[in-house]
Amino acid sequence: MVAAAPLRVAFFGTPAFAVPTLDALLASRHAVAGVVTQPDRPRGRGQKVSDAPVKVRALEAGLPILQPPTLRDEAFLTTFRHWQADIGVVAAYGKILTDATLAVPRLGMVNVHASLLPRYRGAAPVHRAVIAGEHETGVTIMRVVKALDAGAMLAKVTQPIGDDDTSDQVEASLASLGAPLLVATLDRLAEGGVVETPQDESAATYAHRITKEDGAIDWNRSARDVHNLVRGLYPWPHAYSYLDGDRLIIWKTSYEIAGTHPPPGTIVAARGDLWTVAAADGVVHLRQVQVEGRRPVPVRDFLAGHPVRVGSAFTPR
């Protein structure tokens, strides 16, 4: 049997999550016609303008790069059409695609989405799954349609989420899982052997974009909920609470269920490596914390320089 002809692929992506997929495409029999990525923006603590990870990789590979401020730009659309792509691949590009863009590749466009659709459509599927305490997640290869993350599903792969996994760990693992799945899906598309399964709209959930305000800890929640918030918002924007009027950023925690405990938010112990705070059904052990404007430190280092009184409490403000 003669293998189907390789596809010309237009790749849309921006952050580190998308790089393994781009690498997999470059190593495949398919040809990357060019890369569309977000315009350069200030990044990091110094807010210096720098290239995003996909742009860095595209430059290394010598690929054509487009960074349109808007996908409605006619100059962008003209160049995009000249690439003569058979299919578009989207991996965390960061913008909603226009109808005009979707219409260009002859086989349409597919997306590498970091959840088991129809759950966790939207901008922050990994963070929201970790915060919710999900035990399983995965990657879905789906058709890109005008409605957000609502297209037919072409392939899925699953993976467990450990009790202490942070969102960056889960995201990196999903990026590695999704890359070969995408290439295998393109192979089947080229051969005409892909089954497209509609999503169950009744089971859809939405993963809202993460903001700094999401990090406020409600100690009236369960100890596990607080722990899940901390690891779900690691490495950004982090969970936080207020002690004596000062905001303390919580980097790492563990937890345990306890039969009896003081009111939620109360500090139960604060000595050496042990800093324990009551939650609704147990206690949360703080492991690494940060005073605003300073570096994160283990609790032993923090407590050595900041005496904390047992019986005092964290507050919403």
Brief digest:
Helices cover 25% and strands 29% of the residues. It has two domains: 200 residues, Rossmann fold; 104 residues, Methionyl-tRNA Fmet Formyltransferase, Chain A, domain 2 (Roll), CATH 3.10.25.10.
What is the fold's blueprint, element by element?
Layout: E1 8-13, H1 19-27, E2 31-36, E3 41-43, E4 48-50, H2 53-61, E5 65-66, H3 74-82, E6 87-91, H4 99-102, E7 109-113, E8 121-122, H5 125-131, E9 136-143, E10 153-160, H6 167-191, E11 206-207, H7 223-232, E12 239-243, E13 246-257, E14 267-271, E15 274-278, E16 282-291, E17 297-298, H8 299-305, E18 314-315
Parallel strand pairs: 1-2, 1-6, 2-5, 6-7, 8-11
Antiparallel strand pairs: 3-4, 7-9, 9-10, 12-13, 12-18, 13-16, 14-15, 15-16, 16-17
Question: Can you tell me about this structure?
Answer:
With 317 residues, this protein is of the alpha/beta class. The strands form 4 sheets. Strands 5-2-1-6-7-9-10 form a 7-stranded mixed sheet. Strands 12, 13, 14, 15, 16, 17 and 18 form a 7-stranded antiparallel sheet that branches. The chain has a two-stranded antiparallel ribbon with strand order 3-4. Helices cover 25% and strands 29% of the residues. It starts with 7 loop residues before the first strand and ends with a strand. A hairpin with a 3-residue loop joins strand 15 and strand 16. The chain has 8 helices and 18 strands. The protein has 2 domains: 8-207, Formyl transferase, N-terminal domain (Rossmann fold, 3-Layer(aba) Sandwich); 212-315, Formyl transferase, C-terminal domain (Methionyl-tRNA Fmet Formyltransferase, Chain A, domain 2, Roll), CATH 3.10.25.10.
